[in-house]
């Protein structure tokens, strides 16, 4: 019988249409890559199970459409997320500049309890197209620092560069937040149970 602690994580992947969200998810969850582009309709998810730091992790990775006409579907999908991955294409500046809007969209639709400390990860995808790069690493990291010190990875879903590392990083961040919250709850419970109720005094 396994004694490993278990975590179920819901992770959303957001970004403009065509930045490679579906390819990143499939590369991580299924080790597959396809050069045939097909836009995601609405939202879909894949599940990936793995061991991370002696913990059994089940990650539901939600792939949402990058097209504006599907954003109204977001509320039901965004709620309950443990982390959010923001993706841009290193060859398309507009996809990078739109990250701010995707972040705001998530905070509005998802309404996390502690938005200032919610785990975001930023991925610059398509580094296999380095000759066509239009967004520098320095610029992206500067934006991440100014937006709550988000972690930044550059990946290639095609070459499977840094894909696993990026998703493992967001899992660690979400789990560490989960552990802190559990500890705070347990601490509150311990304080409550350690306090002996005062004896009832009756006055005559």
Word description of this protein:
By secondary structure, this protein is of the alpha/beta class. The protein has a single domain (5-194), classed as 3-Layer(aba) Sandwich (Rossmann fold), CATH 3.40.50.300. The protein has 6 helices and 6 strands; from the N terminus they run βαββαβααβαβα. Mean pLDDT is 83; it is low at 182-193 and 197-204.
Counting structural domains, the number is 1
Largest sheet, if any?
A: 6 strands, mixed
Class inferred from helices and paired strands: alpha/beta
Strand % is 15-25%
* Multimerization state: single chain
Widest sheet, order of strands: 2-3-1-4-5-6
Quick one: CATH class? Alpha Beta
Helical amount: 25-40%
Query: From N to C, what is the helix and strand string?
Result: EHEEHEHHEHEH
The backbone outline, from C-alpha atoms, is globular
Corresponding CATH superfamily: P-loop containing nucleotide triphosphate hydrolases
CATH topology: Rossmann fold
- CA-atom Rg in angstroms: 20 Å
Distance between the termini: 60 Å
Beta-strand segment tally:
6
Q: Which ranges are low-confidence, i.e. pLDDT below 50, for 5 or more consecutive residues?
A: 182-193, 197-204
How many H/I helices?
6
CATH architecture: 3-Layer(aba) Sandwich
Mean pLDDT level: 83
Short description:
The protein contains six helices and six strands, in the order βαββαβααβαβα. The protein is of the alpha/beta class.
